[in-house]
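User: My collaborator sent over this chain with a note saying "see what the structure looks like." That's all I know about it. Can you take a look?
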Amino acid sequence: MPHVGRQPGFAQITKLDDISGSFNGSQTSFNLTSGGVAVYPIQIEAILLQIGGVWQNPGTAFTLNGNIITTTEAPTTGESFHGVVLGSGLNIGTPSDGTVTGAKLAADAVSANTKLASGVVTTHALAASAVTTAKLADSNVTTAKLADSNVTTAKLADSNVTTAKLASDAVTTAKITDANVTTAKLASDAVTTAKITDANVTTVKLADSSVTTAKLADSSVTTAKLADSNVTTAKLADSNVTTAKLADSSVTTVKLADSNVTTAKLADASVTAAKVASGAISITTASDYVQSTWTPSIEFGGGTTGLSVNQQAATAFKIGKLVFVFFDFNIISKGTSTGNAKITGLPYVANGTGLTGVGGYIEGGTTGGTKMFLNTGNTFGTAKALIYRGAGSPGTIVQDSDLSVGWCSGILLYWIS
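Assistant: Without extra context I'll predict from the sequence alone. Here is the result:
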């Protein structure tokens, strides 16, 4: 007869693997498995356990965590085990063909990875525009998938047709729009001589200042190429106008800058009497004439210890390498230095040749008389020895003992280097 009330279902009963081999009197936690596969009961009350022939009360004799039970007391070695799990699933059998309709499927129940068999999604199953870019795997749209003539200009992203995409010789003249091969499109050194039609590089094609020295063939700039009056001073390299470049008689007076014909420019013996204007040369206007003053003094044996002189006055005139000097000074005290007497402080260094004295005079002295101031011939520098003339012994160098205090004056003529 039929059941009164709720119809019984077909509950799945799972027999648990025997865990008595782990009983040792101390272990309390055990994994539940069936056939070596972990079993996860839906609730602790669905577990029926018997240890040592005694049914265990769920929640009191043991607890459940996932597929692990923990007993209140550790089972001892030798105790038996029996266990089953009830209601972990309902076996409804396999649905009949055509009985699972779309309405029976939950949203997102058919996953791509596990529910669809290979090759079952055919063209008629795809909705229009359903295959978006995101649905295409990288590198899966091959040449064979593209219909002929369907990759139009609009389909190409800007700057994506690279050099590598062009076949050799694919860009023909017909493919280039007039006036679109700009300078930026030409590779460096791409326009070779062979690419230029004869006589087509006209003046307007040359950029300003682009014809450099390196571009001119040797000897190609002839006289005919130079515009009149265009070879300016700036165009001439220093020292390049040589004698050979000057035409005879081309250097006139107006071509010479004032004061630029120096002594070095005059050839020896080239300034003849005819070249010198009357009255043009005088002692005071000669370029090597110098008049100056200097301070004369005296020394004895190279020393001046205790020497005192005053009222020192002297003038020098230099004409070329010849020097005239006039001097006066008053000896107040000779001091204690002894030896040959020499006039010191001459304004120019003598070269030791052709030296002479004229009309020198010294007041007093043991010999008295007039004394000439001469150099012995081997005395250089700015000090000259005194040599007797007149009342003194000729050729004798004046000594400190020959002089007394008083005025010393004279004229000296000598050469310099």
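A starting point for your reply to your collaborator: The two ends are 161 Å apart (CA to CA).
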